[in-house]
Amino acid sequence: MAGVSPGTVDRVLHNRGDVSQASKDAIALVLSKVNYHPNIHLSAISLKKKFKIVVAMPKSYKGEYWGGARSGILKAVEEYRNIDITCKFCYYNQFSLDSCRTSFENVIQLNPDAVIIGPTFKDETIVLANRLKDNNIPFVYIDSMVEGTAPLAFFSTNLFSCGYLMAKLITSITPPDSEYVLFQAIRVGDESANTTILRKAGFMSYFEEHQMSDRVHRVSFSVLEPDRNETLIGEYFENNPTIRGIVVLNSRGYVIANYFKKHHIDRVKLICSDLTEKNEHEIKNGFIDFVLCQRPEMQGFCAMKVLVQYLTFGTVVKMENFMPLDIITRENLDYYNETSDTVVPFS
């Protein structure tokens, strides 16, 4: 109501930190309008508490998908800096099952008050979720929901719809008799990512509805061993010159785009997920036609926010929280700021 952040309101209510006079006046006006009276007992208890929140998510860097989620989480911690929050990250290699297992075991060993999980491997996530539930530790998912578990909340796009939309888009920009390829990353442990499984279900649903499922081919590529891609991708295109549409179900669309660029291939349309810096570069170069973005920074921010509010004030939390699904092209790329340092939180 005052047009400022929750953190600014908190600083004014507790007379902490530097706040502009204009913000103070705006907050004071709202407090007067709503006849605000602080719950002194609750405030005193909450400000004395210390919370340890552990985040289990794939290791990433700035400009990558999971780097955006991490940025959103840390912005929420800063937003609530008047509350004593310790945030610890347990990173894992999203292409290695063993790395995920080790990370999830470390989560338990840290004795957290709450956990944010970025799930990649479904079975391992279920094991962790059940252990947290047994210990009455609330947890929140970002990126996807894992069926058969009971999170406090999750923040994600509708991944089935995402895959369905990818299919609809790729068929709309290719000739009617085209053949298509689903490129999927090879993972150590030979288990598909949870997001990939859900997107693939949506993708194939569209092709089955339109009786075109026999036109879809599946090909693997390597993230951990990129030198193999020259052979993995090259041999396929040599043997299948009629392919006109490609969908990459994760954020590594740039891997295929780089192959196109190196071999001067411009006849094939390409769609992938997530506006990473590398994907953004290939959109500008014209080798990626569409990117579907699911706002990882906002997911991370909101996940941390609901946990802090739940731990501090017992705030009732809505479990299902679906993010907008943005379609990014070369034409609207300059007006989209998901990879910037700006996050627009929702209440």
Q: Could you explain how this protein is built, in words?
A:
With 347 residues, this protein is α/β, with parallel strands linked by helices. It folds into 3 domains: 35 residues, no CATH class; 140 residues, Rossmann fold; 135 residues, Response regulator (Rossmann fold, 3-Layer(aba) Sandwich), CATH 3.40.50. The chain has 12 helices and 12 strands. The strands form 2 sheets. A 6-stranded parallel β-sheet has the order 2-1-3-4-5-11, with helices on both faces. The chain has a 6-stranded mixed β-sheet with strand order 7-6-8-9-10-12, with helices on both faces. Helix 4 packs parallel to helix 12. The radius of gyration is 22 Å and the shape is globular. The C terminus is likely disordered.
**What is the CA-based Rg, rounded?**
22 Å
Strand ordering within the main sheet: 2-1-3-4-5-11
Number of strands: 12
Give the DSSP E fraction (strand runs of 2 or more residues): 15-25%
CA-CA gap between termini: 11 Å
Q: CATH superfamily membership of the largest domain, which one?
A: Response regulator
Q: Name the structural class.
A: alpha/beta
The dominant shape is globular
Uncertain segments of ≥5 residues (pLDDT<50)? 338-347
Q: Mind telling me which CATH architecture of the largest domain this is?
A: 3-Layer(aba) Sandwich
Annotation keywords:
347 residues; alpha/beta; Rossmann fold; 6-stranded parallel sheet; 6-stranded mixed sheet; 43% helix; disordered C terminus
